[in-house]
Specification:
CATH class of the largest domain: Mainly Alpha
Strand order of the largest sheet: 6-7-8-3-9-10
CATH architecture of the largest domain: Up-down Bundle
Number of strands: 10
CATH superfamily of the largest domain: ABC transporter type 1, transmembrane domain
CATH topology of the largest domain: ABC transporter transmembrane region fold
Radius of gyration: 35 Å
Structural class: alpha/beta
Largest sheet: 6 strands, mixed
Number of domains: 2
């Protein structure tokens, strides 16, 4: 298996600085997720930031007072115990503030995770089908989903930077007054460690970016190795060792790459930390020397050593937090770019409302279509009409464009050439959301929602999801009522095995539920793409016996490889080589004795 290669960035530092441009939009999301929580957290951090310098100043007074009383035999200074009490109050306040910050960080984490997750879901729902069939988009979507939780530490770091900056500013001011060079040495010795950490953080980002596709493959093999859908073939074909090996190979590859880079970071970080430690102890020794030489009091020694230690620690933390923000902002590029993905099927500026009573029907005019990323022409100059109240069927070999026509009718894709008209108006001029309300579709790969039976049907017309009368009417149309009557909790029964108490259905039973969902929509246009694939012969016959009744007054289009159902259509279109090879009723096409006749006879031969 080829080794993963992280993406090459020509100028990592420029890339980091550029990535900081991601912060303003993210911070606006932070604010939008909870203004009250964010404001309270900032105020708490500002209050906490002032505590260290105040504690050190009070400690200096206490130590000098005790030293004077011990060495000179004097009484403790006036108000000494009030000063001690003040230090105690500050210590208590610091503890409370710390817990309050943790509390509000926890509250904020939940609010922000919810906010970003909802934004990702909402934006994903606006994108067209072409996006979901693009592997590069899937990588971007996977990384964007991760940002909903993985970047919480970065946001906390942003709050910590504010707190640490205020603390460092107050401590640095005290050290600067004492000795500007002392402050300079401390900061200068910390810069190399900061640059080293930033460099390796960027390398980890680029490595992680290159591993996205492989991690998706790992998730896929993990799912194949332990899922209900693959369990049968897993056992029958003895696939478990194969999937485990594929997963292990990918996992070992990522482990080795991460381990190698982590080892390099450990060695470099250890060496650079020596420089930081040297700067700290040089300043520490200098302050001790001046105290021993009698140039400052014991209290000043306590104040300065505490300030040096606190400044060193806070400057390191400040650099680390800022480095973390700068490098984690690189990951936010994925989130920002995801939100910048736009659907290709945009409604025209003056969006038209779909006709509530279709008068002329659909018309394909010289429609040409090629899937994105493919050079194969699926439809090549297709012309067809579909009139109101007409039931048509599409037949043809695999890959001849049957399902593609459905995708174009429903605007999941746009034609790459020609026009599709509805009542004489280009389909692209209609508001997609409004158009969808007038179309009901059941596909062969329909969704099996692991929700209640009522919700599974009600999703067809979500605003009537609680209308039991409509639910029951739709279920009777599809023959799903008999399935639901056998369930322990009827319409409130959870379907599927994902959740406790759920009941799974057979393929045919699920298909009846999906058909009920389509009838629940009660749209003008009904499209059935291999809707009976999982039904047995008797169930299929029952459904289609009522097909005329159920499609009365509607435009119905269905795709099926079973000619026993196709023959019920008013008109049959035979697709071949990107166009219509034959069209007409079943009897007319059989009389022609050409392509349709051959396909029908070939299938009928199996039943003789």
């Amino acid at each position: 298996m080829p080794e993963l290669q992280p993406p090459a960035f020509p100028n990592p530092w420029r890339q980091r600085l550029k990535a900081l441009g991601n912060l303003p939009p993210i911070l606006s999301m932070v604010w939008a997720s909870g203004p009250g929580v964010v404001t309270t957290s900032i105020l708490l951090r500002l209050m906490t930031a002032a505590v260290p310098i105040a504690m050190l100043a009070i400690s200096r007074l206490i130590v000098d007072g005790v030293a004077a009383a011990y060495v000179g035999g004097h009484a403790l200074p006036r108000g000494f115990w009030w000063i001690v009490s003040l230090e105690f109050a500050l210590a208590v306040a610091a503890g409370i503030l710390s817990r309050a910050i943790n509390f509000f960080d926890s509250v904020f984490a939940d609010r922000f995770t919810r906010y970003i997750s909802v934004r990702v879901m909402e934006h994903a729902s606006t994108l067209d089908l072409a996006s979901y069939e693009n592997p590069e988009f899937y990588d971007k979507l996977e990384r964007a989903r991760a940002q909903a939780t993985d970047r919480l530490n970065m946001i906390r770091d942003a709050g910590n930077v504010l707190q640490q900056a205020v603390t460092v500013a107050s401590l640095s001011a005290a050290l600067f007054v004492y000795s500007p060079w002392l402050l300079f040495v401390l900061v200068a010795c910390l810069v190399p460690a900061f640059l080293g950490e930033t460099h390796f953080a960027f390398l980890f980002y680029s490595l992680s970016l290159g591993q996205t596709c492989v991690k998706r493959q790992m998730d896929y093999f993990r799912t194949l190795g332990a899922s209900k859908e693959s369990a049968k073939e897993l056992k029958l074909f003895g696939l478990a060792p194969f999937f485990v090996r594929r997963f292990s190979d990918l996992s070992d590859q990522i482990y080795q790459e991460n381990r190698t880079l982590a080892g390099r970071r450990f060695i470099a970080g250890s060496l650079l930390s020596l420089v930081s430690s040297a700067g700290y102890y040089a300043a520490y020794v200098f302050v001790i020397y001046r105290t021993v030489a009698g140039r400052q009091s014991i209290g000043t020694l306590t104040f300065l050593t505490g300030s040096i230690a606190a400044t060193s620690a806070n400057v390191q933390s400040l650099f680390a937090s800022f480095s973390s923000i700068a490098d984690q902002s690189l990951f936010l590029t994925d989130l920002r770019e995801f939100f910048e993905v736009k659907p290709s099927a945009r409604p025209a500026p003056a969006t038209a409302i779909a006709p509530r009573s279709i008068q002329e029907g659909f018309e394909f005019r010289n429609v040409r279509f090629t899937y994105p990323g493919s050079s194969r022409v699926v439809l090549d100059g297709l012309n067809m009409r579909w009139r109101p109240g007409e039931r048509i069927a599409l037949v043809g070999g695999n890959g001849q464009g049957k399902t593609t026509i459905v995708k174009l009718l429903t605007r999941l894709y746009e034609p790459t050439g020609g026009q599709i008209l509805l009542d004489g108006v280009d389909l692209r001029e209609y508001d997609p959301e409004d158009l969808y309300r007038e179309i009901s579709v059941v596909c062969q790969d329909f969704m099996r929602y692991e929700l209640s039976a009522a919700e599974n049907i009600g999703i067809g017309r979500i605003e009537h999801c609680d209308n039991l009368e409509k639910l029951e009417h739709a279920a009777r149309k599809s023959r799903a009522d008999a399935v639901i009557d056998r369930l322990p909790n009827g319409y409130q029964q959870i379907l599927g095995r994902r959740f406790e108490g759920g009941v799974d259905l057979s393929g045919g039973e699920w298909q009846k539920i999906a058909l009920a969902r389509a009838y629940m929509r009660d749209a003008q246009v009904l499209i059935l793409d291999e809707p009976m694939a999982s039904l047995d012969a008797r169930a299929e016959h029952e459904v289609f016996q009522r097909f005329t009744e159920l499609t009365q007054g509607k435009m119905a289009l269905f795709i099926s490889h079973r000619f026993s159902t196709v023959r019920m259509a008013d008109r049959i279109l035979v697709l071949d080589e990107g166009g219509i090879a034959e069209e007409g009723s079943h009897s007319r096409l059989m009389a022609l004795g050409r392509q349709y006749f051959g396909m029908f006879e070939l299938q009928a031969e199996h039943y003789r």
